[in-house]
């Protein structure tokens, strides 16, 4: 996968984690999809609820709106619009439909999934990111910062990483041996010259027979060099 | 044996473990969605993580530019994320928040709360003095409608329920107050200046309006209107201002790690207070919609409601309401 840069995270195993950081493009793409979804949800709710409330083909608010209008029509639509990110990010472990489509998700800087408090702070800071218009501050900080994060990410200690769900393990054609078996082959090859000729021939024939690369009889007929070359064939996987 | 031969052997050994990787990736994906079936299942996840780390380290060296390494990177990241995802029990989390975390945050923010309150009170007094001394300045803080109503000898709150029902009024007020409170917190990002501006502006406006109403003999009526909801509402303003100030201070003089790290820690820590602020503002909004505009509530009742609610706020902030559910401490040896 072609990515800009990886964020390296230390791990207790001593093997660092390399998380590919999502750039402004992927973030904007995800945001636009999410914005479309929540706009559609919000408008649909408003339209249907307003039609039911008005009891006729009109979407207009009444001149003196009562509590029912706010409770049934305005509040649910506004809630869908403004709490869309927060609710879905909690429910989907740092994802939303838009982020999923763009192949990105929210990750804490230690590589773990974000908790509810981090997601809350991240979304509260949208108030700053959305300034002065159409996420001006958020876009600017995303473009200017090393890890392409907006203010909400800085406050919550999160960033956007690619999910890499599209990476499929290729079909591997390998010799049907165990890990330990191949280690034995390596060991035998490393000690080849120090071993007695008979002993190393016996070991080689036993291993090759086990790997079913050759029969005992044909193995026995091979020269020392041929046996070694057969063993060396075991080492590499034929394809990766 | 040459290094190439050894690497080739290791590579072959590595590639034969693809079955384990698939199983590990599948388990990580499953456990990210649901709880582990039993202890063995969870323990196997930890074992998978170790195995993936081991194989990834080899893959990075032996087969760096391959899809297999990419697959391992993804599987390792997923396992890491699953393993480090803390269990979340909403009930327990809320109890811990109100019992332990909020009192801790309030203790930590005490100097900021005192400073924010001082600034807020000073700006109220300044606003009052300014308009009381130069009445024309009210035009800077209040709308022409409000000014005209007061000049007619009426408060703009009178008869408000004839226009807007209590429920709608409550909803509008609490929404507005929560947004202002959140903004006061977030504005701390501008090195605390935004928070200072919001605190100052709100203080000046309140003082100015009080000063203007006092010129027309309506200050007692305004106090009567405000007292039931205002005790908590204004206190919450100071609390969110304090949280914003803490965020700003973390940026100005970082104490933990670098500037960004300090900002992150301050934002996450002080942000917990916002949840309480929002809840308290819901209560204030309901009082403002249902109690404050109704003439049938006498002053003493408003005072009882206002001060009572303020004490409830103090109890929440100090964690007194949940004292009974303190964690059992480990007995000393």
Short précis:
The complex is a heterodimer of chains A (240) and B (333). Chain A has 240 residues and is mainly alpha-helical.
Structure description:
The complex is a heterodimer of chains A (240) and B (333). With 240 residues, chain A is mainly alpha-helical. Chain A has two domains: 157 residues, no CATH class; 56 residues, no CATH class. Helix content of chain A is 55%, strand content 8%. Chain A is built from eleven helices and four strands. Chain A has a two-stranded antiparallel sheet. In chain A, strands 3-4 form a two-stranded antiparallel sheet. In chain A, a hairpin with a 7-residue loop joins β1 and β2. In chain A, α2 packs across α4. Chain A is elongated. The two termini of chain A are 16 Å apart. Chain B is mainly α. Chain B is elongated, with a radius of gyration of 29 Å. The N and C termini of chain B lie far apart (59 Å). The C terminus of chain B is likely disordered. At the A-B interface, β2, α2, α4, α7 and α8 of A face α1, α2, α3, α4 and α8 of B.
Element-level helix/strand string of chain A: EEHHHEHHHHEHHHH
**Assembly type:** heterodimer
**Structural class determined from secondary elements of chain B:** mainly alpha
- The radius of gyration over CA of chain B amounts to 29 Å
What count of helical segments of chain B does DSSP give? 12
Mind sketching the topology for me?
The complex is a heterodimer of chains A (240) and B (333).
Chain A: E1 6-9, E2 17-20, H1 24-54, H2 67-91, H3 97-102, E3 104-108, H4 116-124, H5 126-129, H6 136-144, H7 151-156, E4 158-162, H8 179-190, H9 197-210, H10 216-221, H11 224-234
Antiparallel strand pairs in A: 1-2, 3-4
Helix pairs in contact in A: 1-2, 2-4, 8-11, 9-11
Chain B: H1 3-15, H2 18-33, H3 39-62, H4 67-83, H5 90-133, H6 144-151, H7 160-163, H8 166-186, H9 193-215, H10 219-252, H11 259-290, H12 299-318
Helix pairs in contact in B: 1-3, 2-3, 2-4, 3-4, 5-9, 5-10, 5-11, 8-9, 8-10, 8-11, 9-10, 10-11, 10-12
């Amino acid at each position: 996968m072609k990515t800009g840069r990886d964020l390296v995270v230390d791990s207790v195993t001593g093997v660092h984690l390399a998380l590919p950081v999502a750039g402004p493009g992927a973030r904007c793409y995800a945001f636009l999809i999410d914005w479309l979804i929540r706009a559609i949800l919000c408008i649909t709710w408003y339209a249907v609820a307003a039609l039911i409330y008005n009891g006729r083909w009109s979407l207009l608010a009444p001149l003196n709106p009562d509590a029912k209008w706010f409770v049934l029509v305005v509040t649910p639509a506004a809630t869908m619009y403004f709490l869309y990110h927060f609710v879905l990010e909690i429910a989907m472990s740092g994802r939303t439909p838009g982020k999923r489509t763009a192949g990105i998700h929210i990750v804490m800087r230690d590589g773990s999934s974000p908790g509810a408090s981090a997601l809350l702070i991240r979304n509260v800071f949208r108030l700053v990111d959305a300034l002065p218009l159409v996420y001006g501050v958020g876009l600017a900080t995303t473009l200017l910062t090393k890890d392409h994060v907006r203010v909400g990410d800085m406050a919550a200690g999160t960033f956007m990483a690619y999910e890499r769900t599209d990476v499929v393990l290729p079909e591997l054609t390998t010799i049907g041996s165990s890990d330990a078996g191949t280690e034995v082959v390596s060991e035998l090859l490393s000690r080849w010259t120090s071993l007695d000729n008979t002993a190393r021939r016996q070991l080689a024939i036993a291993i090759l027979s086990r790997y079913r690369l050759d029969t005992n009889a044909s193995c026995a007929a091979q020269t020392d060099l041929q046996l070694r070359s057969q063993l060396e064939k075991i080492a590499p996987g034929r394809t990766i | 044996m040459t290094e190439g031969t050894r690497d080739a052997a290791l590579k072959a050994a590595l590639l034969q473990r693809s079955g384990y990787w698939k199983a590990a990736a599948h388990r990580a994906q499953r456990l990210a969605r649901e709880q582990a079936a039993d202890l063995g299942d969870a323990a196997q996840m930890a074992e998978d993580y170790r195995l993936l780390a081991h194989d990834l380290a080899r893959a990075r060296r032996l087969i760096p530019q391959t899809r297999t390494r990419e697959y391992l990177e993804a599987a390792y990241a997923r396992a890491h994320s699953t393993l480090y995802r803390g269990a979340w029990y909403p009930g327990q989390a809320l109890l811990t928040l109100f019992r332990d975390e909020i009192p801790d945050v309030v203790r930590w923010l005490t100097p900021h709360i005192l400073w924010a309150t001082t600034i807020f009170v000073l700006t109220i007094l300044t606003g009052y003095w300014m308009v009381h001394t130069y009445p024309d300045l009210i035009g800077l803080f209040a709308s022409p409608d409000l000014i005209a109503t007061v000049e007619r000898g009426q408060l703009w709150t009178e008869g408000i329920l004839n226009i807007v029902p209590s429920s709608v009024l409550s909803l509008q007020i609490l929404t507005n107050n929560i947004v202002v409170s959140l903004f006061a917190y977030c504005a701390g990002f501008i090195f605390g200046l935004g928070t200072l501006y919001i605190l100052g502006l709100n203080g000046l406006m309140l003082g100015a309006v009080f000063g203007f109403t006092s010129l027309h003999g309506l200050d007692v009526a305004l106090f009567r209107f405000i007292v039931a909801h205002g005790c908590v509402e204004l206190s919450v303003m100071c609390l969110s201002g304090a949280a914003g100030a803490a965020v700003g201070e973390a940026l100005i003089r970082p104490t933990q790690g670098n500037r960004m790290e300090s900002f992150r820690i301050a934002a996450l820590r002080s942000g917990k207070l916002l949840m309480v602020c929002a809840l308290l503002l819901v209560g204030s909004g309901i009082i403002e919609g249902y109690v404050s505009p109704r003439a049938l509530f006498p002053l003493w009742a408003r005072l009882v409601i206002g001060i009572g609610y303020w004490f409830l706020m103090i109890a929440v902030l100090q964690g007194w309401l949940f004292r009974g559910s303190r964690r059992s401490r480990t007995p000393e040896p």
